């Protein structure tokens, strides 16, 4: 049967279009994601192995943990959050997760801080999200304000230079203030004067796994100073002088440095995995504990070693002239001034702060977190994982 001319023309046009599309596809193949980074000493994520609770003694929930128990088993500890009124929805989400997985059993108080007064709506809705007590506190102006010794003109010029290097939040004064407050001011607030341990919780985070023991009692009973879930590399352009200033401090105060068998200095100075980070940060690997999750003993921050260290850094101006974060500051101090055996990886606490996860393998106790997942973002984010370094130099304790 002979095809009519219009049909032949249509068939020819379709063939030409098909050939053109095929040519374009093969000429410009889709971009390929960078493969996941696999380190020679961590071929698979340890979270793929079955995860167990830390060793005993562990304290379980009973009637002594009821909200108004006359003889409470709770120790002097709190859940702590620096949060703005406009972050209410994100804070409620975080509270729901932590209450569902842990705190509805133990009823530790929530302590909220803000540089502006909390609204009544914030107070009403957060207090309704827990059976535990809640307290709301204004940060003293002298704890939050830019210190008098900071040259504002120099800060503005520095912010422009950092912005040119794609450093996030370089020109946002409040971000620098927040990092400084989280580094060395929060534990000085009068509301925490009689509190020893805290669990830091930020808005918009997730908790995935049931935790059936009192984590604060675990810290106390096992003589732990600091607990983390995620360890990352930081952006070296944010802190080129942090390590040199740290070395100056160590030269002036060698008595604060733990001996080599006890400290984690090798972790801080590693240059094998990310040599470019070490180079730009002038000797610092940039590895740190991601401090949006931290369970810690404030006696360490209140110690003379840490107080002197923070004051030295504060006077140098790097919280404003650069963009030093509380995560590297806390981590460097812990790595130098604390025994590494007192730092604990809470591998059994399922956690997410976008875009990173800690997803343990605890059958029947976790929901919404794929075992061994580190990030649900682009694959290149896997190279930001610094847990392998910690495991290499310290272990998984």
Report the strand count: 12
Q: What is the residue-mean pLDDT, rounded to a whole number? A: 92
Q: Which percent range fits the helix content?
A: 25-40%
Radius of gyration: 25 Å
Biggest beta-sheet profile: 7 strands, mixed
Helix/strand order: HEHEHEHHHEEHEEHHHEEHHHHEEEH
Number of distinct helices: 15
Main-sheet strand order equals 3-2-1-4-9-6-10
Low-confidence stretches: 23-35
Shape: globular
Distance between the termini: 80 Å
Which structural class fits the helix and strand makeup?
Answer: alpha/beta
What fraction strand? 5-15%
Describe what you observe in this structure.
The structure is a single chain. It contains 15 helices and 12 strands. It is an alpha/beta fold and 397 residues long. The strands form 3 sheets. A 7-stranded mixed sheet has the order 3-2-1-4-9-6-10. Strand 2, helix 3 and strand 3 form a beta-alpha-beta unit. Helix 8 (242-252) crosses helix 12 (304-316). The longest helix is centred in the first third of the chain and has 23 residues, at 5-27. The chain is globular and about 55 Å long. The termini are far apart. Residues 23-35 have low confidence and may be disordered.
List the helices and strands and how they pair.
Blueprint: H1 5-27, E1 77-82, H2 88-106, E2 110-114, H3 120-128, E3 134-138, H4 141-144, H5 152-164, H6 173-184, E4 197-200, E5 206-207, H7 215-221, E6 226-228, E7 231-233, H8 242-252, H9 265-269, H10 275-280, E8 287-289, E9 294-297, H11 298-301, H12 304-316, H13 318-321, H14 326-337, E10 343-345, E11 351-353, E12 356-358, H15 387-393
Parallel strand pairs: 1-2, 1-4, 2-3, 6-10
Antiparallel strand pairs: 4-9, 5-11, 6-9, 7-8, 11-12
């Amino acid at each position: 049967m002979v095809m009519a001319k219009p049909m032949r023309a249509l068939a020819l046009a379709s063939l030409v279009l098909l050939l053109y599309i095929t040519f374009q596809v093969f000429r410009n193949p889709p971009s390929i994601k960078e493969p996941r980074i696999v380190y020679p000493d961590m071929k698979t994520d340890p979270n793929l192995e079955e995860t167990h609770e830390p060793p005993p003694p562990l304290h379980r929930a009973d009637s002594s943990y009821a909200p108004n128990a006359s003889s409470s088993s709770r120790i002097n500890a709190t859940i702590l959050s620096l949060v703005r009124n406009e972050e209410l929805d994100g804070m409620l989400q975080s509270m729901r997760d932590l209450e569902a997985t842990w705190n509805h059993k133990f009823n530790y108080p929530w302590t909220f801080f803000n540089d502006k007064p909390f609204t009544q709506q914030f107070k009403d809705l957060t207090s309704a999200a827990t059976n535990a007590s809640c307290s709301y506190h204004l940060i003293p102006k002298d704890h939050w304000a830019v210190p008098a010794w900071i040259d504002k003109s120099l800060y503005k010029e520095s912010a422009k230079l950092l912005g040119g290097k794609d450093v996030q939040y370089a020109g946002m004064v409040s971000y620098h203030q927040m990092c400084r407050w989280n580094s060395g001011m929060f534990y000085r607030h009068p509301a925490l004067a009689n509190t020893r341990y805290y669990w830091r919780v930020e808005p918009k985070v997730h908790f995935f796994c049931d935790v059936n023991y009192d984590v604060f009692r675990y810290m106390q009973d096992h003589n732990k100073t600091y607990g983390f879930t995620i360890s990352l590399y930081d952006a070296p352009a944010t802190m080129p002088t942090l390590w040199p200033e740290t070395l100056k401090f160590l030269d002036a105060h060698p008595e604060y440095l733990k001996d080599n068998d006890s400290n984690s200095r090798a972790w801080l100075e590693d240059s094998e995995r990310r040599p470019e980070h070490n180079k730009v940060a002038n000797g610092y690997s940039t590895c740190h504990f991601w401090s949006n999750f931290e369970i810690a003993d404030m006696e360490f921050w209140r110690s003379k070693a840490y107080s002197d260290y923070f004051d030295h850094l504060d006077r140098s101006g790097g919280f404003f002239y650069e963009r030093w974060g509380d995560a590297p500051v806390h981590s460097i101090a812990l790595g130098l001034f604390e025994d590494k055996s007192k730092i604990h990886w809470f591998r059994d606490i399922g956690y997410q702060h976008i875009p990173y996860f800690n997803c343990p393998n605890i059958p029947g106790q976790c929901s919404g977190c794929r075992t061994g997942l580190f990030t649900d973002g682009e694959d290149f984010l896997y190279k930001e994982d610094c847990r392998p370094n910690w495991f290499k130099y310290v272990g998984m304790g």
